[in-house]
Amino acid sequence: VQLVESGGGLVQSGGSLRLSCAASGFAFSSYVMKWYRQAPGKERELVASIGITGRSVYYVDFAKGRFTASRDNAKNTVYLQMNSLKPEDTAVYYCNARQNSKFDYWGQGTQVTVSS
Question: Per-residue pLDDT for 101 more than 90?
Answer without folding.
Answer: no
